[in-house]
């Protein structure tokens, strides 16, 4: 249970912001200008459903317009409220700045339980919400570009894009009004997996550095590391899948809303995901130890804890008992400000949300650029690249002949080297590069300043510094 003395999500974000800003030398007033949310639009609209008019409440909050368009997901959940969207919009500002995605921060939400409505009803509701936002330029390719978040995905983004196109029939850039669309509606390869992939790249970068590993009391590589994931939604699933299938990590615990699964030898992530798809939850999954209350698993012994669902799951009530030496915040705001302090004192290393889950918005950025350039990445250069690689292969082939068995190309070199990069490879390469560079920027601050003892403060320092520089450049 969350402690009643704990600040709200937005206050928590503000507290973390203030902690960092106290270490900076900003011109008077600029701190306040950056911290506050510029505007939050609340919309209440009615949709005729099942013979009656049902009224819904939605929000779109714009935190900072130091760069435009502003960017951030739209969430469909019963937990949506103004405080939450404002906190999430603020995190988007810092996230975009940190990974150098040229956007201000925004977030939207609709207070709804999507499971209560069928597909046709969801389309009516989504289109109506989109209509309200589009007519106020709160969805617009150059003003405000939403994306998926909790409870939304490609399907909702396709409806929003179509709604925008219907209302702006001559806008050649209409597809850039929203990201996270399906591939056939102007989406980009690799967007669905992007946030989970970003979590993987973030951990890979962390494990490249022995000094950083040492801070968490860890050694070696990701191979064999015990991971507990909270929330096997889009982000948690992809992170767990990639870490276990590609990096050799062992996912020993999975926590879902209806319970937790544990297997010290490692769970089959794909099998659990399929079980959830068929049965609606983890209950009854046969190949693991099941417990009805999954939350104690957050406190179980492991190397890496990946909270990938709701905000505030690590709070004053459980922070002291968390055993993981390394937490990577795949969700937004999973650790409250109070818990953050307890964990910091314990020496737990936290890779903060604004960095750890920035893979989504990074690939959204690539999608937006693709939409504005009206061409798929790799379309121009792929075959040319392959032709040039063929030249090298031909030379090596000659060498192989001359060496007569004394030297040979490695078996899969030819095939791997010949393959020119398609859109998916380019997206992954751009994401990997982004995650590495952003990590290094935080890391440098973390290690070079005595007054910065954690990655979150370092992340805030880097991103606030960038936002402040933008404001200065605007003459503010
Ligand atoms: N909803 C995601 C986030 O919180 C993605 C935002 C985007 O792609 O614009 O970062």
TrEMBL record:
GO terms for molecular function: glutamate dehydrogenase (NAD+) activity; nucleotide binding. Signal peptide: none annotated. The record marks 149 as: Important for catalysis. Residues 188-475 form the Glutamate/phenylalanine/leucine/valine/L-tryptophan dehydrogenase C-terminal domain. InterPro entries: Aminoacid_DH-like_N_sf, Glu/Leu/Phe/Val/Trp_DH, Glu/Leu/Phe/Val/Trp_DH_C, Glu/Leu/Phe/Val/Trp_DH_dimer, Glu_DH, NAD(P)-bd_dom_sf, NAD_bind_Glu_DH. Gene3D superfamilies: Leucine Dehydrogenase, chain A, domain 1, NAD(P)-binding Rossmann-like Domain. SMART domains: ELFV_dehydrog. NAD(+) binds at residues 195, 234. The keyword Oxidoreductase applies. Substrate binds at residues 71, 95, 364. GO terms for biological process: L-glutamate catabolic process. Pfam families: ELFV_dehydrog, ELFV_dehydrog_N. The active site is at residue 107. Keywords: NAD, Nucleotide-binding, Oxidoreductase. Belongs to the Glu/Leu/Phe/Val dehydrogenases family. This is Glutamate dehydrogenase. It comes from Parasedimentitalea marina.
């Amino acid at each position: 249970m969350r402690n009643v003395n704990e600040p709200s999500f937005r206050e928590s974000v503000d507290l973390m912001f203030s902690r960092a800003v106290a270490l900076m030398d900003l011109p008077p007033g600029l701190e306040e200008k950056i911290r506050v949310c510029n505007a939050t639009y609340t919309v209440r609209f009615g949709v005729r459903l099942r013979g009656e008019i049902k009224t819904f409440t939605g929000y779109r909050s714009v935190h900072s317009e130091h760069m435009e368009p502003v960017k951030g997901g739209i969430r469909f959940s019963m937990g949506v409220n103004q405080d939450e969207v404002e906190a999430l919009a603020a995190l988007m500002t810092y996230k975009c700045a940190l990974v150098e995605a040229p956007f201000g921060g925004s977030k939207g939400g609709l207070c709804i339980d999507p499971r209560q409505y069928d597909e046709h009803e969801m389309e009516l509701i989504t289109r109506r919400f989109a209509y309200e936002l589009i007519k106020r330029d709160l969805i617009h390719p150059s003003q405000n570009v939403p994306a998926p978040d909790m409870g939304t995905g490609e399907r909702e983004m396709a409806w929003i894009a179509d709604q925008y196109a219907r209302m702006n029939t001559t806008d050649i850039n209409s597809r850039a009004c929203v990201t996270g669309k399906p591939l056939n509606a102007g989406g980009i390869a690799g967007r669905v997996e992007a946030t989970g992939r970003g979590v993987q790249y973030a951990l890979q970068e962390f494990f490249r550095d022995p000094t950083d590993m040492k801070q968490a009391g860890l050694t070696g590589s990701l191979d064999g590391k015990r991971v507990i994931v909270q929330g096997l939604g889009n982000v948690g699933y992809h992170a767990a899948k990639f870490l276990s299938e590609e990096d050799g990590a062992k996912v020993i615990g999975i926590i879902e809303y209806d319970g937790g699964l544990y297997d010290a030898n490692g769970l089959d992530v794909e099998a659990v995901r399929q079980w959830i798809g068929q049965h609606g939850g983890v209950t009854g999954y046969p190949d693991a130890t099941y417990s009805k209350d999954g939350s104690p698993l957050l406190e179980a012994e492991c190397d890496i804890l990946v909270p990938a669902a709701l905000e505030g799951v690590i709070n004053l009530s459980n922070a002291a008992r968390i055993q993981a030496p390394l937490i990577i915040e795949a969700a937004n705001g999973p650790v409250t400000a109070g818990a953050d302090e307890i964990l910091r004192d314990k020496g737990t290393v936290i890779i903060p949300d604004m960095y750890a889950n920035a893979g989504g918005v990074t690939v959204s950025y690539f999608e937006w650029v693709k939409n504005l350039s009206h061409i798929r990445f790799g379309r121009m250069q792929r075959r040319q690249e392959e032709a040039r690689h063929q030249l090298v292969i031909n030379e090596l082939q000659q060498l192989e002949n001359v060496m007569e068995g004394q030297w040979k190309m490695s078996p899969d070199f030819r095939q791997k080297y010949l393959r020119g990069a398609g859109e998916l490879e380019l997206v992954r390469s751009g994401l990997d590069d982004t995650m590495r560079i952003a990590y290094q920027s935080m890391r440098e601050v973390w290690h070079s300043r005595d007054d910065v003892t954690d990655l979150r403060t370092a992340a805030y320092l880097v991103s606030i510094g960038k936002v402040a520089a933008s404001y200065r450049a605007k003459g503010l």
